[in-house]
Amino acid sequence: MMTTLSDPAVTPTVNDDKIFGTPFIKCLVRLIRAEDSYGLWRGKCNSELLAHFTVTEDQRRAIPIIGDPDPHVLWKLDIFYAAVGIAIEERSDLLVSRTMEVNQEGFGRVLFTTKRLVLLSKTLRDVHRFGFNTLRDCAKTGTRLVNDAVAVIKAYPDVARA
Amino acid sequence: MMTTLSDPAVTPTVNDDKIFGTPFIKCLVRLIRAEDSYGLWRGKCNSELLAHFTVTEDQRRAIPIIGDPDPHVLWKLDIFYAAVGIAIEERSDLLVSRTMEVNQEGFGRVLFTTKRLVLLSKTLRDVHRFGFNTLRDCAKTGTRLVNDAVAVIKAYPDVARA
């Protein structure tokens, strides 16, 4: 799905430089760039592309508490969790499957599995307000999810390869 | 969701009596009846309710090879796999979660998990043609799925309770 990235939520700060180097954010950027079939985003820097994953306090306040997720927010959700899956694969050298169920009201679940092992199970709620306060939060959350999944693989190495 | 059950696909035969006694079919009937909030199906016998899970050869031939699943077929899919989940819970005394992902073209996956263990993972395809040749097939498929899941729990008892 092609999405216009016209209004970055935040302007990048110098601090973000370190964040762009994290393996999770690298996966995320690679996935976003992979969807740019026509090279429309070639001129955009990484911080511009990633800005759509941040929702500031003020922006969040402007979103109704109850609402149906629109295609753009579903695209962000999809690509965020796809990046989590790829980052787990990179770290573990295993094939990871993702199953995501989101209903029309923005509630659901995302599951990461490999063979017989559940690596990660996360309840999704208020998907229409999906986004992180800062890019640092986005990187931290993604990295934490990847670390959790890798820890599970280490705890059950036989089941992950069964 | 309320669905009108006006055109049973097949007339029940005497042979079906044994099928109604299987634990899986009992679960399925119980789930269908649970959705009958207004008692509209109270006068219908079980074979009438279950007839919607059968699609005869001729009926299947009439359905296009490529098509989008309609709400009625999604309801059938949902209730069939919900019955599988409940039957696994009855047999194993464990809490089972189902995560089902179906895209608009009728492709996807259904996963049954309990704690860290994947009990069952099934690829869904051609969902718009979902149905069984006979009620016996429906009972056999459901029972096989339940047996498979229970065998997995027996093989990994610790992971299922982790």
Structure, explained:
Two copies of one chain form a homodimer. The first copy, chain A, contains seven helices and three strands; from the N terminus they run αααααβββαα. Helices cover 46% and strands 13% of the residues of chain A. Mean pLDDT of chain A is 90; it is low at 1-8. In chain A, helix 5 crosses helix 6. With 162 residues, chain A is of the alpha+beta class. In chain A, strands 1-2-3 form a three-stranded antiparallel beta sheet. Chain A has one domain (15-161): Orthogonal Bundle (Putative cytoplasmic protein), CATH 1.10.3100. In chain A, a hairpin with a 5-residue loop joins strand 1 and strand 2.
Keyphrases for this structure?
homodimer, Putative cytoplasmic protein, alpha+beta, 3 strands, 3-stranded antiparallel beta sheet, 46% helix, disordered N terminus, 7 helices, 13% strand, 162 residues
Which strand order does the major sheet of chain A show? 1-2-3
Total DSSP E strands of chain A: 3
Alpha carbon gap, first and last residue of chain A: 35 Å
Q: Report the mean per-residue pLDDT of chain A as an integer.
A: 90
Strand content of chain A: 5-15%
Number of domains of chain A: 1
Most extensive interface: A-B, 16 and 16 residues
The run of helices and strands of chain A is: HHHHHEEEHH
The CATH superfamily label of chain A reads Protein of unknown function DUF269
Taking Cα atoms only, what radius of gyration of chain A do you get, to the nearest Å? 16 Å
**Largest sheet: number of strands, sense, barrel closure of chain A:** 3 strands, antiparallel
Specify the structural class of chain A.
alpha+beta
* Helicity range of chain A: 40-55%
Number of helices of chain A: 7
CATH architecture of chain A: Orthogonal Bundle
CATH topology of chain A, anyone? Putative cytoplasmic protein
| Low-confidence parts of chain A | 1-8
Q: Class of chain A, according to the CATH hierarchy?
A: Mainly Alpha
Oligomeric organization of the protein chains: homodimer
Which outline of chain A best applies?
globular
Pfam families (chains A, B): DUF269
Organism (chains A, B): Rhizobium tibeticum
Protein name (chains A, B): Probable nitrogen fixation protein
InterPro entries (chains A, B): NifX-assoc_nitrogen_fix (IPR004952)
